[in-house]
Structures are given as structure tokens and as C-alpha cells.
Fold:
Amino acid sequence: MDLATPFLGKTLKAPFLIGAMTGGEENGERINLALAEAAEALGVGMMLGSGRILLERPEALRSFRVRKVAPKALLIANLGLAQLRRYGREDLLRLVEMLEADASPST
Structure:
């Protein structure tokens, strides 16, 4: 059975996304790198933790940067609906660029 699924310009080996987990805290980098490696190996996508922390504290970028271990994986930037009152389209595009993400739910 072939579960390959085209989604946001990439083809996933299965219709599965690793959900947004973490970023910005002490263990965030280690956790995100491990999840991104799994996404790359399995051929599935990954949603990164909320980019709000990154927009407010750019120094947290290191804990979100996973493209080096997941060069082909679908990476989705994440920003909560409540944050859209504060951040606009330009902020979302900047977030996608900073994270080297393929998409964001609001782009």
C-alpha cells in the first residue's frame, strides 16, 4: 500500500506530521533536532514549536534551526491564532525565512 501524499509542495511518505513541540527553552534544540532527524528518516513532515518566542526573542533561533538534519523534510512554521492580532503577514514570512521552513499555516 502506497501512503505517499503530496502536501504543500512536497511528497510525504505517509500523511503524517510530527506536531509542534518546543523551542526557545534549554532542551529545545536537542528535542527539535531529534524530531527533525526522525521526520527526515521517515519521510514525513514536522511542525516546529510556536514561533512567537522567536519573534519576541530572536536569540532563541538556535533551538528552532533543524534544516541541517532535515534537508528534505517538510518543515512548517507555527504561530498561534491569538498571535495574529499582534503579528502580521510580514512577520509570518520573516518567521518562515528564519526557520528555513517550507510553509506556515497562515501563508
